[in-house]
Fold this protein.
Amino acid sequence: GAVVSQHPSWVICKSGTSVKIECRSLDFQATTMFWYRQFPKQSLMLMATSNEGSKATYEQGVEKDKFLINHASLTLSTLTVTSAHPEDSSFYICSAPVVRELFFGEGSRLTVL
Amino acid sequence: TQLLEQSPQFLSIQEGENLTVYCNSSSVFSSLQWYRQEPGEGPVLLVTVVTGGEVKKLKRLTFQFGDARKDSSLHITAAQPGDTGLYLCAGEPGGTSYGKLTFGQGTILTVHP
């Protein structure tokens, strides 16, 4: 199956700093990628759809200025959490569709102190 | 917005028992997928069902798509501790929502030895 890789797997940062999470499709090209947020023992919450070469589409209630998404190439999408606060601490996951299947990254655990 | 109601939310059983997880919606999906996720990792696709009434088997796991393509079930026979994890159903609305799945709330399964 297709491989999607996320980096970093976990990150700890101070409140007020910005953190960038990368999502790469390793063996295929992805014009679209999805970013999710997941709280402990809960399902995935779609944050935004990342589109290569154009602006991301954000879900209702997600602050686009806080969660910056860039899809600069067909194999890389990035999510930057700007001016992070403790309430931004969460598990962030990306995925990319291949035909009718979604392949997920390993996830990135963000802890904001 | 299409919703998927997944139940039960939590399931704690003994090794060897059978179990069924349900996903129900009032909306039609062009396909439905089941994922399994372990703590600290991204979801992994188990199966995709596309045709109404379709039944797929994966070892001790049986997946069924409802005739009207509005509901699905996952049945596990003789559960083992290795089956422990978060199970997610996800429906593809079809149309132009390529890859933008609607996720159920998830079922946390714990199988005790």
In short: The mean pLDDT of chain A is 94. The interface with chain B takes residues 1, 4, 6, 32, 34, 41-44, 46, 49, 91, 93, 95-97, 100-107, 109 of chain A (CB under 8 Å). The longest strand of chain A covers residues 90-98.
